[in-house]
């Protein structure tokens, strides 16, 4: 809630608000190309990875069984979707230090939160995904991530 009573919900909207107030580091990109790549990767993380993990959680977790009509057949295909996307991220991270380029972005923050949430439903990146493991270790060691 802002001083004027305006309420802003949704994490990306909140991050965009704060970036306008404090533009460095530019988590949404510095120019049109970077902004497009950051937006592309952030949406892929939300629409593919987070969606797949959410489906596994919603349809396979005992925590959601009382509030969701679970369809157990949805679990394994979405585990596979998540694993395929993690493999894609590993290949992409072989070419650059961060998901959308040379600098940390909202895509990295979204991916870190999503991958950490995935462990609740036993979706853990395969050890062979070394580039993803490197990225995750570096992201997790940041003071903001440890906080």
Q: How does the SSE layout of this entry go?
A:
Elements: H1 11-21, H2 32-60, H3 75-93, H4 106-118, H5 130-140, H6 143-146
Helix pairs in contact: 2-3, 2-4, 3-5
Labels describing this entry:
147 residues, 59% helix, mainly alpha
What does this structure look like?
The longest helix has 29 residues, at 32-60. Helices cover 59% and strands 0% of the residues. With 147 residues, the chain is mainly α. The chain has helices spanning 11-21, 32-60, 75-93, 106-118, 130-140, 143-146. The relative contact order is 0.13. It has six helices and no strands.
Radius of gyration equals 17 Å
Number of helices: 6
Task: Please identify the structural class as seen in this structure.
Answer: mainly alpha
Low-pLDDT segments, ≥5 res = none
Q: Quote the beta fraction.
A: under 5%
Overall pLDDT level: 95
| Topology order in helix (H) and strand (E) letters | HHHHHH
Largest sheet properties: none
Helix content: 55-70%
- The end-to-end distance, rounded to whole angstroms, is 22 Å
- Inertia-based shape: globular
Number of strands: 0
What is shown here, in short?
This protein has 147 residues and is mostly helical. Helices cover 59% and strands 0% of the residues.
């Amino acid at each position: 809630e802002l001083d004027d009573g305006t309420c802003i919900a949704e994490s990306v909207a909140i991050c965009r608000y704060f970036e306008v107030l404090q533009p460095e580091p530019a988590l949404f990109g510095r120019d049109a190309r970077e902004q497009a790549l950051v937006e592309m990767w952030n949406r892929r993380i939300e629409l593919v990875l987070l969606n797949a993990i959410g489906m596994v959680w919603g349809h396979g977790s005992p925590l959601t069984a009382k509030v969701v009509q679970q369809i157990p057949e949805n679990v394994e295909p979405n585990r596979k979707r998540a694993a395929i996307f993690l493999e894609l991220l590993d290949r992409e991270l072989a070419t650059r230090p961060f998901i959308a380029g040379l600098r940390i972005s909202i895509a990295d923050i979204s991916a870190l939160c999503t991958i950490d949430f995935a462990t609740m439903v036993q979706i853990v990146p395969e050890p062979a995904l070394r580039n993803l493991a490197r990225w995750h270790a570096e992201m997790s060691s940041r003071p903001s991530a440890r906080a």
